TrEMBL record:
Belongs to the pyridoxal phosphate-binding protein YggS/PROSC family. This is Pyridoxal phosphate homeostasis protein. InterPro entries: Ala_racemase_N (IPR001608), PLP-binding_barrel (IPR029066), PyrdxlP_homeostasis (IPR011078). It comes from Congregibacter variabilis. Coiled coil: none annotated. Keywords: Pyridoxal phosphate. Residues 23-228 form the Alanine racemase N-terminal domain.
């Protein structure tokens, strides 16, 4: 994928988002687009940044650290969105501004412990397994409450929101149902913890349903960068 097609893809995605924002009466500017750059080269990140994107999501630690390093001049915001092994919390806490894929207490504690108090607090979203798929990461909705409580208590962390990957479906109504369920969990959590302002939901294939349900952070990979490199 060359730089011109990345810029053209971003324009297309932003148009899709703005159509959905209008259709579902969302506030303009209320929906952020994160570019999911996993498996893409640093040059692709640079092209997306040149096209105006600021938020980048990564799933694999080592390649992410390489890109964060080589794109340090761009002033980007990096989000860790992949499964977290507990022996990787130190570099994650040091190099990312956000972590969206926290689904257990041990990881929360370690991220808090490893975040330098001199840095701004690490922004945390708790991942919820909203479709209750056996194969998926994320805490079950009924076990969410203690994780939220712990995230607000621990130092060096800031609880920002919830993240979900609803079960894949080609059907808008099915997508919308899962997104609505997630939005309900989010509103409930937010009423207890008003610092929560982020519902991280919606990928290339379900962004319209996510915007309709109230997502305010979309995580878009394929629609921006094309097929992944592995
Ligand atoms: C890969 C990935 C995305 C992006 O998915 P696309 O379908 O390529 O837009 C979003 N969120 C997470 C957690 C991912 O792993």
């Amino acid at each position: 994928m060359n730089n011109d097609s990345i810029a053209a893809n971003i324009a297309k995605v932003l148009q899709q988002v703005s159509n959905a924002v209008e259709k579902y009466h969302r506030r303009p500017e209320s929906v952020r687009v994160m570019a999911v750059s996993k498996t893409q080269q640093a040059e692709a990140v640079r092209a997306a940044a040149n096209a105006g994107l600021v938020d980048f999501g990564e799933n694999y630690l080592q390649e992410a650290l390489d890109k964060i390093h080589s794109c340090a001049d761009l002033g980007l915001t990096w989000h860790f969105i992949g499964p977290i092994q507990s022996n990787k919390t130190r570099p994650i806490a040091a190099s990312f501004q956000w972590v969206h894929s926290v689904d257990r207490e041990k990881i929360l504690r370690r991220l808090s412990e490893h975040r330098d108090p001199e840095q701004a607090p690490l922004n945390i979203c708790i991942q919820v397994n909203v479709s209750k798929e056996a194969s998926k990461s994320g805490v079950a909705p009924e076990n969410l409450a203690p994780l939220l409580a712990l995230a607000t208590e621990l130092p060096n962390l800031k609880l920002r929101g919830l993240m979900a990957i609803p079960a894949a479906s080609d059907d808008f109504d099915t997508q919308k149902q899962a997104c609505d369920r997630m939005a309900e969990l989010f509103r409930d959590a937010q009423s207890r913890y008003p610092s929560m302002d982020t519902l991280s939901m919606g990928m290339s294939a379900d962004l319209e349903a996510a915007v309709a349900a109230g997502s305010n952070m979309l995580r878009i990979g394929t629609a921006i960068f094309g097929a992944r490199h592995r």
